[in-house]
């Protein structure tokens, strides 16, 4: 669980970095993206610490998630701010589902990890809701864009759990 969660939070920081690189700090959406990016960085740092404490091997796919995350962020920002928000909404929808399944699997077996995941899940849901409020559903070909990003997210989760 730690391996995939740390990988996901790292990927999220790279997506937001790509979006901010394209949009720049002065874009109206940049403040919201920067705030979400800071939360993702805090999540990543917490999972980094837990990986070290528990001697868990990080995913070997980190270099791929570095490039892929930045590219996804940049590409969606190039389409427009609504597409950038659609990216966030799609990913956070999958992360909400993923974290919920992890919490169910953990039950009472690891209260520390379960608490961290529950806390971060609530913040990811806030990101999704903020992205929808900021116009995610107005993105060009939103249903197709959202479905493609959600599928990619599920694939990334599956790969990071194993590799």
Structural description of this entry:
- It is a single chain.
- With 163 residues, the protein is mainly α.
- The protein has 6 helices and no strands.
- The longest helix has 26 residues.
- The protein is globular.
- The mean pLDDT is 94.
Mean of pLDDT? 94
Range of helix content: over 70%
Radius of gyration: 15 Å
Strand fraction: under 5%
Compact description:
The chain is built from 6 helices and no strands. It is mostly helical and 163 residues long.
Summary keywords:
163 residues, mainly alpha, 83% helix
Q: How would you summarize the topology of this molecule?
A:
Elements: H1 2-23, H2 30-54, H3 62-79, H4 81-106, H5 111-133, H6 142-162
Helix pairs in contact: 1-2, 1-3, 1-6, 3-4, 4-5, 4-6
